[in-house]
Amino acid sequence: PVLRQLCPTTVLVMGGPQLQEQERQVFDRMPELDIVVFGEGEVAFAEIVRQLAAGTRDWGAAPGILARSANGAVVDTSASRRHTPFAEIASPYLEGVITGKHPNLFFETYRGCPYTCAFCAWGGDEGPKADGLPLERLRAEFDLARGMGAHTLGFFDSNFNQPVRRSEQIFDMLLEDDQFKTVGMSVFAQTLLEPLAEKMSRRSALIGCGLQTSDADVNTIMHRPFRHEKMDRGIGFMKKYDLQFVIQVIVGLPGDSLPRLRSTLEYALALEPPTIDAFRLMVLPGTEYRRRAAE
Description:
The radius of gyration is 22 Å and the shape is globular. By secondary structure, the protein is α/β, with parallel strands linked by helices. Helix 4 (135-147) runs parallel beside helix 5 (164-174) and helix 5 (164-174) packs parallel to helix 6. The chain has helices spanning 2-6, 23-29, 42-54, 135-147, 164-174, 194-200, 216-221, 228-240, 258-270, 288-291, and strands spanning 13-14, 35-37, 65-68, 74-76, 104-107, 110-111, 131-132, 152-155, 182-187, 204-212, 244-251, 275-280. It contains ten helices and twelve strands. The strands form three sheets. Strands 5-8-9-10-11-12 form a six-stranded parallel β-sheet, with helices on one face. The chain has a four-stranded mixed β-sheet with strand order 1-2-3-4, covered by helices on one side. The relative contact order is 0.10. Helix content is 31%, strand content 18%.
């Protein structure tokens, strides 16, 4: 309401993962909103901007939205939403949106996730479970990052080391010269192999590693694969090459209890990581746990 009062003629658009599976409820609850976007927003938002630039405001041309027209009628194009392959979405680096000098830059190499953990929205993305960018495009983006003076790169992939061979090829690109000093990413320790761990050791790597729980029943409830021998092996590779990593644990998972949480923490401590982070469960929109919260 305050924003609408300050900017009465501004078109207010909302979307993103925070709205997953509750777009209509938010649109109805917040009459100040002009447009709500379902799912992926790049194509819809580009069309919204085109309509504003042209002065036409033909919201029916934008796929996958709810919009309020000038006469108060609601335009609903949600049925026309579609997944756009990640490679077809313009690169902010190659298109010159991001320019100038930047010491820190961020990348996605793929979208989605091969896993469908009930606490996480990654596996609920609309597209394939691993919708990767072509390696040649990533190489071109990294070259531009070098020209921008970047020395720290952050990767926003669900797990950088998937697929395994592709992740090694990407890291090889970072090792082609000495410019990129620090890299940050999440990895799935159960699939981490030694060649990638060794490559990571050649840079200052800041790694997040989700354990969440070591309890078999709790993992079954949240549909998360867990094999302690694979976890032990992946963590062992990171320790062997003296990588800086943090093991992440979730507190309050369905099926968990204080004794089970204690067992998880004891297991994590036995792995001797540099850091353990414990987070309370967040019941995020678009997740199975959100859909089943009433249970």
